[in-house]
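Schema walk-through. Below, the input block comes first and the output block second. Nothing else is stored per chain. Lengths vary across the set, and this one has 92 residues.
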Amino acid sequence: MSNKNIGIKLLIIKAQEFLSYYQKKGIKCEFILFTQSIIFKKEERDLTKIHDSNNVKGYILKTLEIWAGDDQDAFWARKDDDLIMKMLRKIK
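--- output ---
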């Protein structure tokens, strides 16, 4: 495991701990996490699954722009709606 993945692995562990609280109460739920990785070529845009268990799913969206700044389409990730929809379809 590389150092850059340690944070994601810890987040998955925390998500599982978080979900166990609800599962003990008989509440069915899932935890979906996603982050982005900035790429420089349009043809590299993609969705990568990084974790898939019964109730925790994780994805990296490979995007051209950071979801930040004054451009509202970039800030709200509207420029990557296709990748987000692809992720949501996989989760269903």
